[in-house]
């Protein structure tokens, strides 16, 4: 093994050859279908669930965080769109990185995306379960509490009450969880608690995805239309219950409180890259994928900002740390009828998000398998349904079982670091290919803005403003990752002087990297552990089995 072989790259000509082969996937998706696919992924658990946790952290000012994160995603989406117009096959950031930065980076991103999609689906399944049990209670059907909550959440709530964490009133959600824990059935002295609906909905969606992309598309489009209708209803109806005093103070926990919701807010936006995983099932991927990515991101950003202002205007932000905030706020203002409609609609529409993520993950596995980095079984196509059958079933198992036992906040935090990392590498890959002059075939090209001096000037201005703060050393001590951010920015400033890089990919790198610094150390530690596991598998299996390995190329000729 030599160091250079770790960075072996797939060529665009090889991609074109692969695309000319019949991989037996149905090409049925148009620009509307792809846009709806993106909206389905973005407007899901984020808007129906994690938006409440973000508002709890940052107050009404969380709307500013949605704008900041949407801006970072716009820059990243433009890079994705350019790649998608060049590379019309499945694989998303994994394939893009393989062509630009090389195999080792591609493996890292593919491995990170497996975590992102699996964990994202767990969050969606858990949120679906919360709305499902709420919906049942609205019809007078009581779902057993011990079959609708994970063990760790129930136990934590029980311990909080026992330790006297809450001095005044105990939140209803905490009291209910603690009661559930204390009254849960036991086997051998062990409390039995798990989220059965989360597992069942994953099983159902896995079946839909398995039997075909056309069936998935039709179901997804109808669910998105319903979902958008519900959100518009919430915005219009909720606007009549806004109390401006709930927006004051606008920044109750300061800028730190707003940024504390980064994981929850960013989770809400990561779905746009799932569009690129369906490239081989798009009718005209080079034309339609870029349009769909930009359209869905703009639509969803506007919806999130407006909805966050409505929710924080209807009730005090401190009350929004619940898994079903949209239904909760209307129940709080006495509009139980609308709360019931939201719960029913959320159960149906969150299903579309689960659908999209379940479509995406098997296709990333499929792409990695085709390149030899995973076993051939992962790229096997079901002859009847024309879908990656084995990978789809395995995805259902790996999502469905953990979703019944994990806490939502844990999985929300876990998904963010890997996704930021993937976005940064896609933006970096764009810079690399542009510098090599390999983006000429792109049907969609990022507008070129010369960053030769802009990057460095902005760096100097920001550093100057930062060191003029009286407590800048304290900030560095509390957030040492800012030092890495500064070093990367400095490096990009020097590189821009020499290579005259395009500004948009640089902004994508810097925005995503800064947001990464706002994540807790636990996120980083879990991601590093996952990354090390992946590298072990790569060096044991992927490196030797890779189709770019000269030994394997000799065998195939």
UniProtKB/TrEMBL annotation:
Residues that span the membrane, as ranges: 34-56, 62-83, 104-128, 192-213, 220-242, 254-272, 292-317, 337-360, 387-405, 411-433, 453-469, 499-515, 521-541
The organism's place on the tree of life at top rank: Bacteria
Keywords noted in UniProt: Membrane, Transmembrane, Transmembrane helix, Transport
Main location: membrane
UniProt GO cellular component terms: membrane
Lipid bilayer topology: Multi-pass membrane protein
GO molecular function per UniProt: amino acid transmembrane transporter activity
Protein name: Amino acid transporter
Upper lineage: Bacteria, Pseudomonadati, Bacteroidota, Flavobacteriia, Flavobacteriales
């Amino acid at each position: 093994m030599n160091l250079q072989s770790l960075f072996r790259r797939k060529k665009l000509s090889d991609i074109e050859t692969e695309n000319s082969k019949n991989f037996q996937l149905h090409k049925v998706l148009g620009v509307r279908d792809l846009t709806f696919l993106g909206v389905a992924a973005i407007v899901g658990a984020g808007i129906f669930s994690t938006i409440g946790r973000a508002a709890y952290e940052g107050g009404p000012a969380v709307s500013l965080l949605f704008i900041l994160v949407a801006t970072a995603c716009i820059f990243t989406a433009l890079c994705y769109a350019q790649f998608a117009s060049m590379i019309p096959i499945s694989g998303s950031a994994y394939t893009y990185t393989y062509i630009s930065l090389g195999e080792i980076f591609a493996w890292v991103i593919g491995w990170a995306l497996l975590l992102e999609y699996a964990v994202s689906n767990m969050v969606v399944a858990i949120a679906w379960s919360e709305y499902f049990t709420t919906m049942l209670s609205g019809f007078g059907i009581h779902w057993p509490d011990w079959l609708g909550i994970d063990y760790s959440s129930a136990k934590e709530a029980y311990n909080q009450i026992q330790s006297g964490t809450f001095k005044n009133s105990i939140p209803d959600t905490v009291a209910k969880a603690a009661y559930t824990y204390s009254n849960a059935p036991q086997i051998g002295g062990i409390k039995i608690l798990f989220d059965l609906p989360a597992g069942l909905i994953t099983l159902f969606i896995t079946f839909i995805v398995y039997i075909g992309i056309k069936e998935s598309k039709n179901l997804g489009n109808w669910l998105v239309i319903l979902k958008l209708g519900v959100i518009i209803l919430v915005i219009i109806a909720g606007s009549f219950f806004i109390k401006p005093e709930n927006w004051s103070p606008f920044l109750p926990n300061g800028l730190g409180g707003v940024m504390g919701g980064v994981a929850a807010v960013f989770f809400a936006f990561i779905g746009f890259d799932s569009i690129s995983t369906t490239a081989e099932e798009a009718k005209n991927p080079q034309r339609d994928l870029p349009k769909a990515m930009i359209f869905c991101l703009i639509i969803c950003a506007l919806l999130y900002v407006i909805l966050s202002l409505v929710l924080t205007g209807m009730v005090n932000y401190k009350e929004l740390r619940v898994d079903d905030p949209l239904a909760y706020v209307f129940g709080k203002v006495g509009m139980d009828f609308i709360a019931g409609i939201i719960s029913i609609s959320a159960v149906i529409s969150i299903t579309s998000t689960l659908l999209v993520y379940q479509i995406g993950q098997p296709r990333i596995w499929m792409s990695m398998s085709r390149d030899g980095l995973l076993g051939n079984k992962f790229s096997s196509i079901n002859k009847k349904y024309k879908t990656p059958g084995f990978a789809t079933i395995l995805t259902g198992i790996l999502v469905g079982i953990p979703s019944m036992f994990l806490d939502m906040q844990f999985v929300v935090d876990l998904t963010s670091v890997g996704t930021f990392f993937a976005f940064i590498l896609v933006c970096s890959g764009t810079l690399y290919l542009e510098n090599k002059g390999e983006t000429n075939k792109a049907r969609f090209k990022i507008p070129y803005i010369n960053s030769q001096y802009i990057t460095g000037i902005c760096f100097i201005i920001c550093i100057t403003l930062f060191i003029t703060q009286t407590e800048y050393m304290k900030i560095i001590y509390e957030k040492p990752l800012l030092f890495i951010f500064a070093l990367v920015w400095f490096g990009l400033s020097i590189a821009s002087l020499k290579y005259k890089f395009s500004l948009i990919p640089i902004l994508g790198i810097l925005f995503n990297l800064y947001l990464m610094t706002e994540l807790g150390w636990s996120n980083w530690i879990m991601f590093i552990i996952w990354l090390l596991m992946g590298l072990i598998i790569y060096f044991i299996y992927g490196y030797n089995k890779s189709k770019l390995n000269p030994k394997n190329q000799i065998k195939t000729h």
